[in-house]
Amino acid sequence: MAQEGFKRKLTAILNADVVGYSRLMEDNEEATIQTLNTYRNSMSTLIQQNRGRVVDMTGDNLMAEFSSVVDAVKCAVETQKEMSDRNADLPENRRMLFRIGVNLGDIVEEDDRIYGDGVNIAARLEGLADAGGICISRTTYEQVKNKLELGYEYLGEHSVKNIAEPVHVYRVLMEPESAGKVIGEKRKTKRWIALAAAIIVLIGVGGLAGWYLYIEQTKRKEPTSMGKMVYPLPDKPSIAVLPFENLSGDPEQEYFSDGITEDIITDLSKISGLFVIARHSVFTYKGKTIKIAEVGRELGVRHVLEGSVRKANGRVRITAQLVDATTEGHLWAERYDRNLTDIFALQDEVTQKIVAALAVKLTADEQERLVRKYTDNMEAYDLYLQGAEYQNLFTKKANVQARQMFKRAIDLDPEFAEAYVALGFTHFHEWSFGRSQDPLSLNRAVELAQKALDLDDSLPSGHYLLSKVYSRKKQHKKAIAELKKAIALSPNDAELLAGLGYILNYAGKPEEAIGLVKKAMRLNPMYPAYYLWELGHAYFIIGRYEEAIETLKRVLDRNSDFLPAHLLLAASYSEIGREEEARAEVAEIERLNPQASLEALRSRLSYKDQAVSERLFNSLRKAGLK
Fold it and tell me: Which pLDDT belongs to residue 188?
């Protein structure tokens, strides 16, 4: 008997989601929200015109239902064409692309909400679609194949999360020349006939030797997606660790699964024989339904680790699987069910399994560093992870909350080295973000970093914090020395490399800075805008003004209010005689900061070579800054 308030029905579900939404938000939050609202309004209008109903709009996701599956697919196609037209008017890095999935299935309706496998499959289909593309289920395809002027490509069966049976997936071909075409199904049958014939020939001619040759060739087949890589594969084993999914049934436990992910990334980053994508880039995929092959292509890695975490009643269950992104074949998978007190041994085991699966040789120092334990106190560790979650928000309130968590963790375990570093960063951020002018904030950060390193000198984060403080105090030599120590301990850490590039610019070594920042960009493909600023800064110092201008304009495409980029742009335009553009940049500087002046700027810069300072000030003075 159906539960009161619920009813079942067969309906067509359209699910749409923005590609790379986190990156767009980080680059320019206000512009992204404005674009999303505009595009959603347009999509809502198209849904109404096609006799559909918007069911939900959460975050960057939109879900709609239609009584006619033909109307649903027609609306999906019109939506992608409309979005393509709108994107043509935007800079490439600000374009908002959607994936769309359409499914015809049975759903449960309660009030105005809908649930069930029919909805879940639509969401999974959306995750399988290309950016700007549409994927549909077989139930959808069977209803629309002869009713719309479209083509279709069969993508095979896909096992998707939380759905028991594999889903037959079709990609919609929207180009006019594809109308009426169905690609994949017949070819698949012919391919297997050809393979069967080849096997028979092999057995007949070469017997077991021929069969062995066939099997070996199959095992060694080259990746089919190599040509689509956004970046060339590194010359060493490469990996991206996707955010582990929180399966605890409690959104408040999200910090724990994120912390496990970050710990694994941190451990792998210490291995010189690996190439490890930065946290910043992999967390852009958090909460998204994604294709492993697409992650590999976008990040330029061959291997992807994904998994889940469930924490309850003093126990933790972690599942992890290592996938070859170029073939989507599984290299290793494991499920661990342990006491929470075994969490560090469990993380070490996952790291060791990855190292073994990728046949990476560890140095003696790396083997020693990988066997580590944060603390014996699980409550202290939990507080540390909660503090890290707050710290990653970079707001004034969150910084205070993070500090409270780290202090409580230290109270529980005074030997907890990582907690001292994290606490030190709260004091550094307080000063660097202008929330405190008290120099004691910097001194306190140094004290905490040194305390942490007294407990464990192999902490890259401790050396990194010291380098940040020394840099602010214009002690370039000390800052560089600390960063080099940190990089030796964690050679895959993009933030350390970019940080060294930043300091080297002020220390008079911009050529070296360029190489380091570019290396950081490769390790962190979804890099923040300040990486570009550091690169543009180096070009300015060297005198490569055209390259500086091109790079700094890319910074402003992401964040039009980034004041340091306007300063260097004004100076660069002035240096090559583009006076009108230089004055326009000075006007932007004064709009963003009415108190801006050469005197105020001079007090904050710390170039070792005073000739660079004078060149910068003279060019800004010439552009009209006083």
Answer: 43
Q: Which of 141, 134, 139 is nearest to 171 (CA)?
A: 134
Q: Are the CB atoms for 76 and 104 separated by under 8 Å?
A: no
**Whether the domain at 6-183 and the domain at 238-370 fall into the same CATH topology:** no
Write down the pLDDT at residue 6: 62
pLDDT value for 179: 86
Q: What pLDDT shows up at residue 205?
A: 44
Distance from C-alpha of 263 to C-alpha of 258, rounded to nearest angstrom: 9
What does the pLDDT read at residue 190?
A: 44
Q: Are strands 134-137 and 167-173 parallel, antiparallel or unpaired?
A: antiparallel
Q: 528-626: what fold?
A: 1.25.40
- Beta-bridge partner residues of 30: none
What is the pLDDT, as a whole number, of residue 21? 81
- Which of the following CATH numbers is that of domain 6-183: 2.70.20.10, 3.30.70.1230, 3.30.365.10, 3.80.10.10? 3.30.70.1230
* Residue 274 near residue 358, CB atoms below 8 Å: yes
| Largest distance between two CA atoms of the chain | 88
* Domain boundaries along the sequence of the chain: 6-183, 185-221, 238-370, 528-626
> Which pLDDT score is estimated for 604?
74
Six token digits for residue 441? 């904030």
* 3-state SS, one letter per residue, for 549-589: HHHHHHHHHHCCCCHHHHHHHHHHHHHCCCHHHHHHHHHHH
- Residue 128, pLDDT score: 85
DSSP character at residue 237: -
What span, in angstroms and rounded, lies between the C-alpha atoms of 101 and 74? 12
Pairwise CA distance, residues 44 & 496, whole Å: 45
Is residue 356 classed exposed, middle or buried when 0-12, 13-18 and 19+ CB atoms within 10 A define those classes?
A: exposed
CB-side exposure of 493: number of CA atoms within 13 Å? 24
Residue 213 has a pLDDT of 38
Tens of pLDDT, residue by residue over 479-529, are 999 999 999 999 999 999 999 999 999 999 999 999 999 999 999 999 998
- Residues of the chain with confidence (pLDDT) below 50: 1-4, 186-227
Q: How far apart are CA 581 and CA 590, in angstroms?
A: 14
Rounded Cα gap, residues 204 and 194, in angstroms: 15
Residue 311, pLDDT score: 87
Give the strand pairing for 315-324 and 303-312. antiparallel
Q: What is the CATH number of domain 238-370?
A: 3.40.50.10610
DSSP state of 222: P
**What pLDDT is recorded for position 252?**
77
What backbone torsions phi and psi does residue 109 show, to the nearest 5 degrees?
-115, 130
